């Protein structure tokens, strides 16, 4: 189950901070800041989805991620490839290199990354 755009925004704050209380989360938002109840609702949904947990300290809760950022985005990219590129990473790579207007230097950097991965296989 993936996160909504608002949940992803909040999740990024949690990933960046590692652990955070409600006040920390609210402070991390740019102005205009969302209402505390809005953030609480997002957190509840993210807890229900298994992305966030908390530790209680009296009446306060310290929230933390249950899913690593890299794991989440890796899953999202795999889903994108499956949904839009017939489950073909090479179709995705072809589209990506043609449609993103990469510079020659960026393409050479990508080639170096690919060559490095080939050596590791």
Your description of this structure?
With 121 residues, the protein is α+β, with helices and mostly antiparallel strands. The protein is 64% helix and 12% strand. It has six helices and three strands. The chain has helices at 5-17, 22-28, 36-48, 69-84, 89-99, 104-120, and strands at residues 19-21, 52-57, 60-65. The chain has a three-stranded antiparallel beta sheet with strand order 1-3-2. A hairpin with a 2-residue loop joins β2 (52-57) and β3 (60-65). The radius of gyration is 19 Å and the shape is elongated. The mean pLDDT is 93.
Summarize this structure briefly.
The protein is of the alpha+beta class and 121 residues long. It has helices at residues 5-17, 22-28, 36-48, 69-84, 89-99, 104-120, and strands spanning 19-21, 52-57, 60-65. A hairpin with a 2-residue loop joins β2 (52-57) and β3 (60-65).
Attribute tags:
121 residues, alpha+beta
Task: Furnish the topology, listing elements before pairings.
Elements: H1 5-17, E1 19-21, H2 22-28, H3 36-48, E2 52-57, E3 60-65, H4 69-84, H5 89-99, H6 104-120
Antiparallel strand pairs: 1-3, 2-3
Helix pairs in contact: 1-3
């Amino acid at each position: 189950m993936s996160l909504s755009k608002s949940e992803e925004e909040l999740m990024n704050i949690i990933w960046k901070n590692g652990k955070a209380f409600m006040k920390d989360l609210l402070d991390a938002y740019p102005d205009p800041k969302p209402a505390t109840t809005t953030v609480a609702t997002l957190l509840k949904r993210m807890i229900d989805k298994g992305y966030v947990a908390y530790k209680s300290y009296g009446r306060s809760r310290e929230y933390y991620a249950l899913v690593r950022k890299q794991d989440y985005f890796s899953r999202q990219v795999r889903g994108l490839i499956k949904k839009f590129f017939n489950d073909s990473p090479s179709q995705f790579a072809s589209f990506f290199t043609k449609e993103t207007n990469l510079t020659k230097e960026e393409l050479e950097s990508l080639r170096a990354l690919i060559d490095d991965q080939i050596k590791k296989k």
